[in-house]
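Slack export, channel: ligand-projects

TW: morning all. Re-posting the request from yesterday since it got buried. We need the structure predicted with the small molecule present, not the apo form. The ligand is magnesium ion; the SMILES is in the block with the sequence. No rush, but it would help planning for next week.
GE: picking it up
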Amino acid sequence: MSTHEVPTADQLSGGRGLFGPQPEPSATAVDDSQPLISLSHIHKIYQMGDVEIHALHGISLEIHRGEFVSIMGASGSGKSTTMNILGCLDRPTRGHYFLEDQDVSKLSKDELADIRNRKIGFVFQGFNLLSRTSALENVELPMLYLGVKTHERLARAKEALELVGLGERLHNMPNQLSGGQQQRVAIARALVNQPTIILADEPTGNLDSRTSVEVMGVFQYLNREHGITIALVTHEPDIAQFSKRIVIFKDGRIKKDELVFNQRSAADELERLPVPLEDDEEDEE
Ligand SMILES: Nc1ncnc2c1ncn2[C@@H]1O[C@H](COP(=O)(O)OP(=O)(O)O)[C@@H](O)[C@H]1O
Ligand SMILES: [Mg+2]
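GE: finished. pasting the full token output, ligand included:
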């Protein structure tokens, strides 16, 4: 498959083992029983010497299984602080965070690290791949921490890479991959422990517009076909339009929370976009 295509459902029937049977289309609809994530009156106060910075002023937010949420807002509005709390990288100063019914707001650092490894998949703006390490090994890494056996690690890493359309690139080093491909490796790494939610902070921030559509196509595919729950931060309204819901922050509060009516479809748009002149097969010399 060309490196510019977003994987389609038929190309990637590879989700069987890792993600179980693909849900019926109706099953990918948002589940409105118990929320997967519930932030209740969350405050975050950073202490900088004598100065207190009140970054979050009582945020309440619920995310259900199968949602695809964009978080937007001006710089300094509290998006990353919220993502850090959601990702169990930091604790709220006040308020409660329920992750699949467990109150994680008061857990110790070690307990949080354990929850993080098992339940959260992270994707960052700068990809954060290990440079002298193949795509496959990068994706194996989160499983090493959980003590998954070599054979299973390999199988799951391969399957996750196939799922993001990189089945032919298992042994490429990051510098032999385009930016969009590197971000897909990062998405595969985020997926491989079957997390409860994938959190992405500006995942298209370093990518050109076509590549951004490709990466958003991978997220849409994972959300639609595999029911994977995604929350991502973006500055770009165009990018948020690929998700199903947009939450807008202002000054540490939620200013707006609404469903996306004209959701963009990355797969449709890529079909209409001209194929780039230069194919990024850098590794073929
Ligand atoms: N580690 C920190 N220490 C002190 N202040 C912080 C820290 N992280 C963020 N802040 C402050 O908290 C507020 C919210 O920041 P942040 O969540 O990073 O916003 P955003 O991601 O929307 O740009 C800002 O005023 C920022 O300066
Ligand atoms: Mg930020």
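GE: first-pass observations. The pocket of magnesium ion (ligand 2) is lined by residues 79-80 (CB under 6 Å). The longest helix spans residues 209-226.
TW: perfect, thank you
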